[in-house]
Write a structure and sequence with these properties.
alpha+beta, Rossmann fold, Immunoglobulin-like, 11-stranded antiparallel sheet, 5-stranded mixed sheet, about 35% strand, disordered N terminus
Length: about 325
């Protein structure tokens, strides 16, 4: 009887050991999958960031403030609990963010991220992006050494079940559209304000906005032949059309406003500096070059392109100065 009991106990222990080694079953829900991917990203960072480093989780770009905050919070939490490296306190990061007016879900170039890391006394900075590709989302995470700008690790994960992710992203009213770069989205647009409360920004009415004279871009303070021909807003999409000549039309573009890399074209809200947007798509539409943004609520903004150095820039565009024609 004694031997039998010992045998049963040993068998149970063996089963538990096998179950533990085989790993937990894969989560099936959208939220579970997102959490599992964030956990995988944390495990990856644990193998790439030197033990004992002080790490600052800077931003997750892509224009989804709630999702960016969710990912950054979980990455920070795992970093603290795993104990491989130390983590800069989020309150300290928020203070620097407020001072420099950068957005946790907006673009922060590597040089700026390095500067932020130095201000925080960090040895490593972690940034990333979330992009929607068809029906799935792609999360990219990158760790950079502050002093040398060496990439310590960079990895991408796909999230195929987007049920929970959709509730954390900025969506716009439903409907169909044939505008460049458009896709059908549904839900209610929300933006997280500095104080943490959720607010609903005023929508920009659907229609065509034209200016006279047309806004003209500058490069290093010098006027260049690049004008805003019109802005079209429809179903939550904000499409900026550019022309090389003042009264519309097309001339050779050169490289001062490249449309092959649309996310290099950006909008910065001049009234709410913490809010910025990246173009989702760019291209050619007849004689005009276009850049398509999603969920823009800025009526007075700066528009610029980072492909060229110095950046070609429209320093201030104000929809209140435009002629409006409903669609």
């Amino acid at each position: 009887m004694k031997k039998s009991c010992i045998g049963i106990v040993g068998l149970v222990a063996l089963i538990m050991l096998i179950t533990t080694c085989s790993g937990a079953p894969k989560p099936s829900g959208g939220g579970d999958e997102l959490d599992a991917v964030i956990r995988e990203a944390s495990n990856y960072l644990n193998t790439r960031i030197p033990k004992g480093n002080k790490v600052a989780f800077i931003n997750i770009s892509g224009g989804y403030p709630d999702l960016a905050d969710y990912i950054l919070s979980d990455l920070s939490k795992h970093g603290v609990n795993d104990g491989i490296f130390s983590v800069v306190d989020r309150a300290q990061l928020e203070q620097v963010r407020a001072e420099l007016n950068f957005n946790l879900s907006g673009e922060v170039d590597d040089n700026s991220a390095q500067a932020i890391g130095k201000m925080l006394g960090a040895q490593t900075i972690v940034s990333g992006s979330v992009r929607k590709i068809g029906e799935m989302y792609r999360l990219e995470v990158k760790a950079i050494e502050v002093q040398t700008a060496a990439v310590q690790g960079q990895q991408v994960w796909n999230i195929t079940n987007s049920v929970t992710i959709a509730s954390l992203t900025v969506n716009t009213g439903g409907g169909t559209t044939s505008l460049p770069g458009a896709a059908v989205a549904s839900g209610t647009q929300t933006v997280t304000a500095t104080g943490g409360q959720t607010v609903t920004p005023a929508a920009i009415s659907d229609g065509t906005y034209t200016f006279w004279p047309r806004p003209r871009a500058t490069q290093a303070g010098v006027d260049i032949d690049c004008y805003i021909d019109k802005i079209v807003v429809r179903n939550g999409y904000f499409i900026v059309y550019l022309s090389r000549i003042e009264n519309g039309g097309h001339a050779s573009w050169g490289n001062n406003w490249n449309s092959n890399w649309p996310n290099n074209t950006k909008i910065q809200d001049l009234d709410r500096p913490s809010r910025s947007y990246d173009a989702a798509r760019g291209g050619q539409d007849g004689k005009l070059r276009f850049f398509s943004f999603q969920s823009v609520t800025s009526r007075r903004f700066k528009l610029w392109n980072t492909y060229s150095n110095p950046n070609p820039t429209f320093e201030e565009v104000n929809l209140d100065n435009a002629e409006y024609e409903p669609l």
